[in-house]
Amino acid sequence: MKPLFSQGPSAASRVMSLGAVALILILLSIYTNLLDPVRARLSTLTAPLYSLVNAPGEALSWTQDSLRSREQLQQENASYKAELLIHKRKLQQMASLAAENVRLRQLLNSAEMVKDRVLVAELVGISPDPLTHRVIVNKGRQHGVYLGQPLLDAHGLMGQVVEVSDNTSQVLLITDATHALPVQVNRNGVRAVAEGTGDLYQLQLRHLANTVDVREGDALVSSGLGQRFPVGYPVAEVVSVTHDPGKPFARVVARPQAQLNRSRHVLLVFSGARAETTVEDPAP
Q: Is 196 a member of any domain?
């Protein structure tokens, strides 16, 4: 009598069949594109599983960010502010260096136009007395600086040396109330004396007759009279000429060409015999 249910294939034959099917599927996947739709469908079906697996880590990260203390946030904010200030300071230094580079280039161009020997100096101080217009430069007797030596910047005459020490010198600016400078109008050669008024932006030409040909915009240069300042250096520009019929002299006001309140690097001029007998500037 036959059994109701026939015996199925053995376990070994099943494993071999599944292995053969798997091998066929692998070969089809490598060498053909037949299984690409199936692979895409499986990727779509398994995408939620990836999200589900990553959910605990994302929840932990969100919890840490949400529960961060107020003190930590304040510390981070303070750290960012300090870093921002440091970067701003560096940016300001870069801007300052760029501006100083421009000023030095102007000064070098001015030095090329000066026929006499010059010595580059730097302002290291100013007089604390508001009624006295004096500055201190970092060159002195050891560098050949002498009393009465002219000082100029990239734009015009600034003043003359009135005190000399070994390594520094004091310079009286042309706008000091006690300073007077022989000048001439560059346009027609009219001579005058430019006196300081105690104002950094103003010089005054005294004792000029009302009939003298002086106009607004005239350039004033050093005349060389008195043998203190060399001839032809820019001094000032006439900004106003006032004629009063009741007075014998006109009131002429000029603005200095030199940037007396801005220039930091200046030139000390050696003119005439001084240029040949003074000591050379030592190496920096």
A: yes
Structurally, how many domains does the chain consist of? 2
CATH code for position 204: 2.40.10.340
Q: Does 282 map to a domain?
A: no
Q: State how far the Cα of 84 lies from the Cα of 90, in Å rounded to an integer.
A: 10
Which residue ranges in the chain fall short of pLDDT 50? 5, 273, 275-284
Answer for the pair 218, 187: CB distance below 8 angstroms, yes or no. yes
- Chain position carrying tokens 């109330």: 177
Residue 81: both structure tokens together: 């502010």
Q: Is 34 helix (H, G, I), strand (E, B) or coil?
A: coil
Tokens (6 digits) for 153: 């910047």
Residue 220, pLDDT score: 92
Boundary of a domain, candidates 30, 49, 64? 64
Exposed, middle or buried: residue 283 (CB in 10 Å: 0-12, 13-18, 19+)?
A: exposed
Domain containing residue 44: 15-64
